[in-house]
Amino acid sequence: MKNKILSVISVWFIALYTINAQIVLQKQTERDGIVTSLRFRTDTVPVAMNKAKEILNSINKMQAADEWRLEKSSIDKQKTKHQYYLQYYKGIRVVYGTYALHGNDRGQLESAIGNFQKIDQVNTTAQLSESEALQHAMKHIGAELYKWQIPEEERWIKEYLNDTYYPQGEMVIVKDILQGSNQYRLAYKFDIYAHKPLSRYMVCICGCHRRENFG
């Protein structure tokens, strides 16, 4: 009985591999096996654009905590369809985990380009409050004056754009590149406008007070 079960499992895996080989025309992978680019067949075995999320879930080794969420979709003048997905881990957005999928005017998937962040385990309990993380970010930038600290600037953006320069921290998961490792950490991501000197920063403050500067 055990041998029969193993045989069925083996046949299922072979069938799955064959189906993937039939629909994929070209594939590019990184050294770690992460798929970064795919071109799909649109002649013999076309894949519908509405199956895009299922394809994303299958091309990389995802865990139960991993998830792709559709960020936006559009159709250009050539009737080409585009879908943009962001990666989430336990409901928290993963920095650099993105995929763009493109299809033709017949609703068939043509290509997928992006990157999947392979996360083993992350503590998703914040060690800093948002306000504490912002203070660390400002200390790291070291500007003399920030946009939200100028009443005229803050009044203008509220009146004309219904927005604020005051940074709102977004909880994200980011790779600890400062350590040169494959570890991922929970962090607050801030979009900070400095006035003196005039500059803009995208900064991630991790719970261990390390900083990832993206701008």
Topology:
Elements: H1 2-23, E1 24-29, E2 35-40, H2 52-59, E3 66-75, E4 81-89, E5 92-103, E6 109-115, H3 130-141, E7 145-146, H4 151-161, E8 170-175, E9 184-196, E10 198-206, E11 211-213
Parallel strand pairs: 5-8
Antiparallel strand pairs: 1-2, 2-6, 3-4, 4-5, 5-6, 7-9, 8-9, 9-10, 10-11
Radius of gyration: 22 Å
Helix/strand class: alpha+beta
Largest sheet: 11 strands, mixed
Which spans of ≥5 residues are poorly predicted at pLDDT below 50? 2-19, 209-215
Q: Helical element count?
A: 4
- The total of beta strands comes to 11
**Which CATH-level-2 architecture of the largest domain?**
2-Layer Sandwich
What is the helical fraction, as a range of percent? Answer: 10-25%
Distance between the termini: 60 Å
Q: How many domain modules?
A: 2
Quote the average pLDDT.
Answer: 85
Q: Tell me, what is the CATH class of the largest domain?
A: Alpha Beta
Give the topology string: H per helix, E per strand.
Answer: HEEHEEEEHEHEEEE
- Shape field: globular
* CATH fold naming of the largest domain: TATA-Binding Protein
The proportion of strand residues reads 35-45%
